[in-house]
Amino acid sequence: MDARVTTELTFDVDAWSAKHLNRIERALERWVTAEVCADVAYGAPMTLIEAMRYAVLDGGKRLRPLLVLAAWEAVRGEAPSADDHEAPLRAACALELIHAYSLVHDDMPCMDNDVLRRGKPTVHVKFGQASALLAGDALQALAFELLTPTQGIPADQQARLCGLLARAAGHSGMVGGQAIDLASVGVPLTEHQLRDMHRLKTGALLQASVCMGAACGNPSAVAQTALQTYGAALGLAFQVVDDILDVTADSATLGKTAGKDASQDKPTYVSILGLARSTAYAQELLAQALAALAQSGLSHTQALQGLAKKVVNRSC
Amino acid sequence: MDARVTTELTFDVDAWSAKHLNRIERALERWVTAEVCADVAYGAPMTLIEAMRYAVLDGGKRLRPLLVLAAWEAVRGEAPSADDHEAPLRAACALELIHAYSLVHDDMPCMDNDVLRRGKPTVHVKFGQASALLAGDALQALAFELLTPTQGIPADQQARLCGLLARAAGHSGMVGGQAIDLASVGVPLTEHQLRDMHRLKTGALLQASVCMGAACGNPSAVAQTALQTYGAALGLAFQVVDDILDVTADSATLGKTAGKDASQDKPTYVSILGLARSTAYAQELLAQALAALAQSGLSHTQALQGLAKKVVNRSC
Question: Which residues are CB-neighbours of A22 under 8 A, at least 6 positions away?
Fold first, then answer.
């Protein structure tokens, strides 16, 4: 048995996640506080700051940041120096800010009108709609601010990360998917159309997490393509499982309103494929993701493997 | 009389603006169409695209884009090559997208609840609140997408432009100012507090326009500081005049609802200083802006001078 197989057998993704989550939480706490507090002197009002912090801190599984760090570990290989975490950590937090802002706006009365998120009242319930709108807008801008520090990351890396994030977040990515979602309420979709919607709405940002992590290193073209494939399969698998959990889990477990899709007459994988075929499809996507990693030529993909398995086999 | 003075005397800012407006409109039309149309294949729904285009095209004075191009002309100096417009034109359009998105969100019922903008129904009136929310979100992302093309602008310039835009647009800039504005309805502000609010809400993006235009060239430290001062004075002057016009012009002239600030009990320069002192203050700020240009060491500041005069002496 060679060393690589041994490592894979003994790799503990929960321990890995716990270690990195700690780092991510501290970074988010720092960047959505220190910078913001400094701005209080310039008059940025506390309500905005509090709403931004409420939307980001103390909640969330941080899947996107973990994917960034896992992808970066995969392309980085051996012997990292102590302080080369700056770019991946900023990329990780930038993605979480985009994700957090999208949830804030998505929960608003004119969108999903949801009152519960991560087990807490949603931002507009707590701070009012106007503050929720502005907090979301400010979080999107802050994501790009995090990616463009005056020092610590080479300029070409900053530009690449900004480009990847902007494309994944906008009309040809996440927001485009949300708009399709909005237009599809009560409209019968084919499986193909549903996949297209989710590839944008959830998939784009998850795939970007993997690509941005990789962009913090210098992956080969083969590795880059493999990671893109992994990210696409994982992104879709995440949504299929989300649809399954919406009908099989309860609100307390999910930390958000369960059964929402069905009650809003939204097309889901379960409504189109049924529960059994949806479950099988999620496993098939997991197999695709793992196969892509196996073909990547990268030897440190244990965290990416473990995260994919966790996403597909999760219960909330 | 030397050549420089002659140029200043004969400079026609309206002709200059018309020429550059043409270029700006064509670029916006291209970037909020060509790219977006390409994405239709990926499923981005037409409603989102139409709402984005409606928010951006066929309206607006394009002050921010014009400031970018004027600042770039000032730092570029003589003998531009034919194709070095790429960076300033992208910066110009990115700023306009941020401005346009802020208007879309600002007009929404949970904010100013305005139904008229640039003489047309506001985006949420025309497309519904959810589409307005998403169109605004997508426009912000598209701004950063424009600044990060895969070729045509050096990476360090892309990173610098993204950083300037993110800081001007977010919690320590425009959105921060909007949040203060929101919190100040019915609250008596001092002139100092009012200035702080406007420095963020309107001033940050106007100043960023000047700084981003300058960042497309290589200005000296002296020129950079002078342009920052010019931008700050111009940004504040713009708002003072806006407050004056809110009480002196009618809705048809403004293309938006006149008398809105007073009816919403918002603090303005007119309510704090009175009309006469506000008018004098606007002229004082214009003098500050022009003095900064005179001390910049730059010889091609005619367009910046002309735009400052137009801003202060405008009637709509």
Answer: none
Which residue from A minimizes the CA distance to B145? Answer: A166
Cα-Cα-Cα-Cα dihedral sign, residues B310, B312, B315, B316: positive
What's the CATH number for B11-312? 1.10.600.10
Q: Are B217 and B80 in contact (CB under 8 A)?
A: no
pLDDT tens, residue by residue, B209-252:
999 999 999 999 999 999 999 999 999 999 999 999 988 876 56
Q: Could you tell me the pLDDT band of residue A79, with boundaries at 50, 70 and 90?
A: low
Inter-chain CB pairs, A–B, below 8 Å = 216
> Residue ranges of chain B with pLDDT lower than 70?
1-9, 34-44, 78-83, 250-264
Q: What is the mean pLDDT of chain B?
A: 89
Residues 122-181 of A with CB under 8 A from B: 128-131, 133-134, 136-138, 140-145, 147-150, 155-156, 158-160, 162-163, 165-167, 169-173, 175-180
Q: What is the pLDDT of residues B57-73, one digit of tens each?
A: 977 899 999 999 999 99
Digit-coded pLDDT (tens) for A46-66: 889 999 999 999 778 999 999
Residue A2 has pLDDT above 70, yes or no: no
Q: Cβ contact (<8 Å) for B200 and A42?
A: yes
Q: Residue A158 and residue A138: Cα distance in Å, rounded?
A: 19
Contacts of B199 (CB under 8 A, 6+ apart): A43, B177, B232, B235, B236
Q: Across the interface, which of B47, B110, B156 has its CB nearest the CB of A179?
A: B47
- Residue A261, pLDDT score: 64
Task: Give how far A2 is from chain B: nearest CA, Å.
Answer: 42
Q: Tell me the C-alpha distance between B31 and B57, whole Å.
A: 11
* pLDDT category of residue A224 using cuts at 50, 70 and 90: very high
Residues 263-282 of A with CB under 8 A from B: none
Q: Which residue of A has its CA nearest to B35?
A: A172
Pick the CATH number of A12-313 from 3.40.190.10, 1.20.1050.10, 1.10.600.10, 1.10.760.10: 1.10.600.10
Structure tokens at A27: 């970074």
ipTM, two decimals: 0.92
Chain B residues close to A155, C-beta within 8 Å: 155-156, 158-160
Domain ranges of chain A: 12-313
pLDDT 10s digits, B147-173: 999 988 999 999 999 999 999 999 999
- Neighbour count for residue B141 (Cβ, 10 Å): 27
Q: Could you give the CA distance from residue B247 to residue B263 in angstroms, rounded to a whole number?
A: 10
**Minimal CA separation from A252 to chain B, in Å:** 28
Contact state of B105 with A137 under an 8 Å Cβ cutoff? yes
Cα–Cα distance list, A94 to A31, A39, A73, A78, B176 (Å): 10, 19, 18, 25, 19
Chain B residue with CA closest to A163: the answer is: B148
